[in-house]
Amino acid sequence: MSKHILVAAIDFGTTYSSWAFSFKYEYDTDPTQVSAKQWQGHESQKGPTCVLIKPDGKTLHSFGFDAETKYAELIEEDEHNNWYFFKRFKMMLWKQKLIRNSLLEDENGRKLMTRTVFALSIKYLKDDLLSVSKDRIADAVLQNEIHWVLTVPAIWDNAAKQFMREAAEEAGMESGMLSIALEPEAASLFCRHLPVERSGCQLSLGSLRAGKQYLVLDAGGGTVDITVHEVMPSGDVKELYKASGGAWGGTKVDDSFEEFLACLTEKTVLKKFKEDHLDDYLDLFRRFEVKKRNIDPDKDSKVVMSMPLAFFTTVKDLLNKEFNEVVKHSSYSKLVSLAGDKLKMDPAVARNFFKNSIDSTIEHVKDVLQKRENRGVEAILMVGGFSESKMLNKAVRQAFPGLKMIIPNEAGLAVLKGAVVFGHEPRGITERISKYTYGIAMTGVFDSSKHPESAKFTDTEGVDRCKDLFDTHVFAGQALQVGEAQSEIAYATRLSDTTAFKVEVFATKSKTPVFVTDPGCRKLGKYDIPMAGTGGGREVLVQMTFSGTEIDVECTEKATGKVSHIPIDFLL
Q1: What is the pLDDT of residues 93-105, one digit of tens each?
Q2: Domain carrying residue 113
Q3: Which residues is 337 bridged to in the sheet?
Q4: Are 400 and 380 in contact (CB under 8 A)?
Q5: 545 and 462 co-located in one domain
Q6: What is the rounded CA–CA span in Å between residue 398 and residue 511?
Q7: Span 502-549, pLDDT tens digits
């Protein structure tokens, strides 16, 4: 990190993505002085997370708005069948078993390697940043002086983080100059630097004194991340409660709108409409994306949506009825009407699109605030694009009237700009809470009073030993100091031909695991510790650090003093 002159961050979101950067001298002067991309012609600082890949399955054609536009043209000309169009694909990394060769299905059912899609997307954003900003960057910075930062939800597992890192490396980012930032942490770091007049609120996060606690509610398109921070005397923050949350972001509202259209007509209508008129389908949901931001819980005016002509013809073709007739005979007949191409919805119908997402979020925040360690929370910091929703805003205010609300201007950019801050000062977060009990599989001397006979085996020296013991390194809920190793093990060879120790890493929510085979224990990953030289008695000291955004393994050979960092392979 000491070599970087510029930090460049990519916020790779479920719904929208973008990039931003700042020079070290700018950060030293004003940490909030961050340059972010302007998507030309769209008055937006974020573009849709859509990627169009050529028929060869290897070459990126376009990303964002350009990808949507070009794919719509291909459909109109009936030349789209061999192309690959992916939209909102980041959620594939949430709660799914990831393997290196996993496949990702595009909008029309074609499949490509998942890593290829992510790598091409990241490469576009990386190259776009360098291209658009070349007048500022080209003559001032060498490639090896740029530190890159990628954002990920805090609730993602280690395999998903590794997947993003490998995709970024495939996109041309050097591993040693790449950091993974947790989205709510990044937003929190950025907002700590905002003065009251720039925060857009009567209260700024920066005005909270040492010892004050606040909950970070990062509501994005895909996930809602929730964590609790405390302000330190230094002005930095520490995590008080482990990150948690779920897939309750803004796309859930889109899903509800789609379910409403299916209920209004039939599921087959939506399926056929998407298959035959993907350009109109995408345009409809682009309109809804704008509309849903303005749905107001305090206004009783109807919500009006312009419907594509292709939707009317699809209804007619499949149901042999005009759309207005279908609406009149639906369960929504008293709440929805049609005037020309405009669908008019009672405000109660529109508000109901938000119900599942908001209810899940509020319930989870209540649960977090009831924990003993979080009873000192005084404020809620709302960030992420979905935090700009008036519906979510009011629901949070009503549910927690005793807490101060901090919703900064452009809440959707707080994560992106905070990722730049994190790149300059990763130790702005001084302490994190371990989500799991982490340990490794070990053997030990067999003790009949503690160990079952099924775990017993006899080694080559005739000693009865016990296999599959859970050697705990950190406990679930343990406070971890950032930058400090949490465990240390010395390995020594007994056999002269030993070239490596194989280590398997396990995790569980239990604080008292005994065996790696206990219920709830799962194998996370593995790594090999290389042993230099020959002969027995060769020693290596292994330190594992769990407090970073990624788990770090540092090995020091005792004989030579050589230090190396070994990646854990979580993509088993």
Answers
A1: 886 788 888 999 9
A2: 6-185
A3: 344
A4: yes
A5: yes
A6: 36
A7: 999 999 999 999 999 999 999 999 999 888 877 778 889 999 999 999
